[in-house]
Amino acid sequence: MTRDENKEGIKGMANPGRYGIERIAYLLMRLTGLGLLGYFIAHVYETSNILRGRMGWDDFLAMTQTTEGHLFLVLVIGMCVFHTGNGIRIMLGHGGVGVGKPARPDYPYNPASQNYRHKIGIYSSIVLAAVAMMYGMAVMFGE
Amino acid sequence: MAQVSSVADEQPPNPLSTTKSILLRISRFNPEFDETNKFMEFTVSYEKWTTVLEAILDVKKHHDHSVAVRYSCRQATCGSCGMLINGKPRLACFTKISELDSNVVTVEPMNNFPVIRDLAVKFERLFDTHHKIKPYLINEDSEVDSDEKEFLQTPKEVENFIQFANCIKCGLCNSACPTMTTDSSFVGPQALAQAYRYVADSRDKGKDSRLDIIDESHGIWRCHFAGSCSQVCPKGVDPAMGIQFLRGYLLGFRS
Ligand code: HEM
Ligand code: SF4
Ligand code: FES
């Protein structure tokens, strides 16, 4: 508590426990965004192996044919689907779409912006990501 | 004497009273002397209707007068008594102990505000950011010198901004905001909601100048629509809604 502004820091930013599913979606969006960025960089690096000719390419591709490689790709599928689904919800929200209408506030003051439309958007992004991950597993492990 | 006390004993108990007790843990910290905060614990009895502020004042009255707490109206109107109650920003005068559903109530100063002492925090920065967005009607016409007696508004026009005008500057939203946990320069949900309050007012002509003020790197773009501000607001202001409407103007979704 010696810090001047008593800020919670990254720990507080990433603590999803107190403010409902919207704050969890916020955290997942950051994590999946950073995860995808990491994957994207690795992906550019990986595909650049084609410059080493067919052998180099095949060698590198073999990494994704292991169990760990498959699980990693399943995670990437999940991150991709959640990030895209939730990203579309956030872009609409950022434009003021589906965030409710101003009205005279009344006790118990439930905020109209935290409404079922956006909650459905979050839950469906999570469910879609889970379904895509299961499909991915079925394809990769199913042979 | 014995008779007096037996008369007192005969008083029927208040049928509504259900006196129980909780452990109240109060964060103590004086930046002048202390390295870090310590918790002091007090057992406080409460009724169904006792607020957290009343419990703290009870401690001040009977146990330790030095506990620093700011309050004034005791009715969720002045915006003085914001603090973390069991980890969440709330108004102490608007939070009943019975609704917390816990035998232990922990009170700490709000996050993202410098601590003056114990539960009292500095509001200078919040007032600065509030002031920055020009929290007043901008209109060259004035009700004083125009022919019209007053600027009339339809009930619909009032409804467009009245919820945002409910803000009591308590700072709970700034304390809950995930951007404010790390960014000391962010203008914050309180000020952004007030920018929308005036932009949405049919008497105001300052929309462009306010959009200019918030369209900067530590302005509106640091909001990620996590919604925590709206979830803790005790007055139904819903800052997250106002902020997305403002961004809608900047992104061209609204005009
Ligand atoms: C159709 C696909 C995508 C959509 C619709 C989308 C949408 C979004 C949106 C709306 C945000 C802002 C969220 C906010 O305001 O908090 C965001 C953040 C981000 N996205 Fe994406 N995105 C997509 C694909 C990607 C890809 C492929 C990558 C990686 C290369 C990526 C990396 C990031 C990162 C790093 C962030 C910042 C996260 C943060 O600061 O919280 N996104 N995305
Ligand atoms: S918007 Fe709500 S939480 Fe924020 S300062 Fe105003 S009344 Fe308090
Ligand atoms: S004492 Fe005024 S808001 Fe709580």
General description of the model:
Chain A has helices at residues 9-13, 20-47, 53-62, 67-94, 116-141. Chain A has 143 residues and is an all-alpha fold. Chain B has helices spanning 2-10, 52-62, 97-100, 124-132, 155-162, 172-176, 188-199, 207-214, 228-232, 239-251, and strands at residues 20-28, 38-46, 82-85, 88-91, 104-108, 115-117, 120-121. Chain B has 255 residues and is of the alpha+beta class. Chain B folds into two domains: 20-121, Ubiquitin-like (UB roll), CATH 3.10.20.30; 124-251, Fumarate Reductase Iron-sulfur Protein, Chain B, domain 2. Chain B has a five-stranded mixed beta sheet. Chain B has a two-stranded antiparallel ribbon with strand order 6-7. Chain B has ten helices and seven strands. The complex binds protoporphyrin IX containing FE, iron/sulfur cluster and FE2/S2 (inorganic) cluster.
State the helix count of chain A.
Answer: 5
Main CATH class of chain A: Mainly Alpha
Strand content of chain A: under 5%
What is Rg of chain A? 20 Å
Q: Could you tell me the mean pLDDT of chain B?
A: 92
SS-based structural class of chain B? alpha+beta
Q: Could you say what the CATH architecture of the largest domain in chain B is? A: Orthogonal Bundle
Number of strands of chain A: 0
Helix content of chain A: 55-70%
CATH superfamily of chain A: Fumarate reductase/succinate dehydrogenase, transmembrane subunit
Largest interface: A-B, 39 and 54 residues
In the CATH hierarchy, the architecture of chain A is: Up-down Bundle
Q: Quick one: CATH class of the largest domain in chain B?
A: Mainly Alpha
Q: In angstroms, what separates the terminal alpha carbons of chain A? A: 56 Å
Strand order of the largest sheet of chain B: 2-1-5-3-4
SS-derived structural category of chain A: mainly alpha
In total, the number of domains of chain A comes to 1
Q: Please summarize the sheet with the most strands of chain A.
A: none
Q: Average pLDDT of chain A, to the nearest integer?
A: 92
Q: What is the end-to-end distance of chain B?
A: 79 Å
Subcellular location (chain A): Membrane
Protein name (chain A): Succinate dehydrogenase cytochrome b556 subunit (SdhC)
Organism (chain A): uncultured marine thaumarchaeote KM3_24_H11
Keywords (chain A): Heme, Iron, Membrane, Metal-binding, Transmembrane, Transmembrane helix
